[in-house]
Amino acid sequence: MFCHAIWRAQQPVRLEKLCFKKDAVRRRTAAQSTFFHGVRANSRFWLSKSLDGQSIVSKVVQNDGALSLRGTLHVDREEKAAFLELQNGSDIRGVALAAEGSRNRVTLTPSRSAEIAGAFARWLKRMRSEETATASVPARALRVAVGRDPRLSGAQLRDAVICALQNEGCEVFDVGLATTPAMFMSTVLGGFEYDGALMLTASHLPPDRNGMKFFTRQGGTDKKQIRMLLEDAYEHSTLRDAYHIDGLTAYVAAPRRVDLMSAYASYLRECIQRSIRSSSRSTEPLGGAHIIVDAGNGAAGFFATDVLAPLGADITGSQFLDPDGSFPNHVPNPEDQLAMRMACEAVLKSGADLGIVFDTDGDRCGFVDRDGKAINRNRLIALLAAIVLREHPGATILTDSVTSNGLAEFIRSHGGRHFRYRKGYKNIIDKACELNESGIDCPLAIETSGHGAMRENYMLDDGAYLAVKIVSELINLRSQGDNNGIVSLIEGLSEPLEEREFRLNLLTENYKETGKMIVDAFHDFVVGSGAPKGWTLERENYEGWRVAVEELDGRAGWLLLRQSLHDPLLPLNVESETLGGVAHICRILYGWAKPRFADVLDLSPLEKVLS
């Protein structure tokens, strides 16, 4: 629905007087407001109502004379920047709710979400055109699935993206509450096999955030593709046919509701049944096993009720299975200390054989052994490596850059090769695919965050599938007479005595250039004549610089300084096998950095350790 305002000749009009709001772009003060000047009578511009009830300028129309606009380029630059700032590596993240007392501005509005979904549809169309250019394939509408985690903003954003997809001619299937891996599976599972899937989630981020992930049967989007979608979304938002749907009172057509999660749960149950090598109870192979799930009120509670319980497992003691987008009990994150502590307590209280902790959208997991000890980060990687290397002797296990020295030795001791690559789940997945295509056997790619992808499962980072592997192994060990649980698989894993991660904020606007300059200078410091004794640059580095540190009695620590993938800061990881070793390493680094970079790098996290 459009409304219009008539420009008076030569009379400047202040945009804010016309209720102009540029979709949560940084608001300027009255003194900074942009002015439009019409040089003839009867010039006019159109306003349209956006999905979140705000008004945006969609078209400037000249009736009978030239129309001169001052300041519009500045507005356009701000709006384009607002779109591009939504990129979070290979997906979309932004603030979707105005939380009480928060200063965070809403950046992922329904209207922007609609534009991004529309860009996804147009991209799918282009790919379809390329695939069918030389083939005789009957034309049909693209079929796209839409799912979401339980975030409070999810329903509103779902309505926006469905409307945009329908406006692009897609047939839309509303999955409802889902996990991210299930949305990929909607493109390959029999009976579904959609052309594309869109998941609304912001993983473990606070309740006011939300985001978008995109899939085709080839996998998830990469960074370049997300940038392309955002640029296309912005360009479309400036056109007359941008998505301006008044009040979202109705869809173009009612989307079809489909029960994807039941089919996905069935797939996971079948995987468990195939993986258990010997069982006299084919219908209930988990009979006698006590396994609890902590879903953190996210979307993965189904794993307890729809996967484990139907196979005979006792799930008594499972907690926070009901979806609640306010996440009232703890952050759904297997790296979060409170989440893991509460899961450990639940395992001990219930006497369970195993605990499983999922993140909000089910693509990450952590575990708890029967003694109430957390199995995440390096311990989780070691556990999966032990399973995988038995199935694939001599294989390469690919991890991110911050894994421990002890893990590398553990993998070598089990006959495998450790390939330490870069942070970012899409980075490690893409690298694993590259290795496999080149003939290097790489069945597992996993981050310390719990993102783990297996070649046998579409190289998809799926926390539920990792749980399938470990639950199956628990039963296999028991059938062999080993009742110690899965922890027996990581015997011999050496763990650091101390470990810390510091996030050193960059204090300049051109933080990328400044960060690169500091990281380069760190390299020169380590390889130069004034390098600390016992500090040696490691042979393979794919992001930042990792340095081996000789410690007393043949022990070894390390530190890694790198640029953040998304934020204006430098992460610093430090590990040591000696008491006080982290502080000793930090003292040397602080002594080097303070006289050189104190004006552009916040060193206070190191100062707290040293004090």
TrEMBL record:
The keyword Phosphoprotein applies. Coiled coil: none annotated. Its cofactor is Mg(2+). GO terms for biological process: carbohydrate metabolic process. The keyword Nucleus does not apply. Residues 90-237, 284-372, 377-474 form the Alpha-D-phosphohexomutase alpha/beta/alpha domain. CDD domains: PMM_PGM. Keywords: Phosphoprotein. SUPFAM superfamilies: Phosphoglucomutase, first 3 domains. GO terms for molecular function: phosphomannomutase activity. InterPro entries: A-D-PHexomutase_a/b/a-I, A-D-PHexomutase_a/b/a-I/II/III, A-D-PHexomutase_a/b/a-II, A-D-PHexomutase_a/b/a-III, Alpha-D-phosphohexomutase_SF, Phosphoglucosamine_mutase. Belongs to the phosphohexose mutase family. This is Phosphomannomutase/phosphoglucomutase.
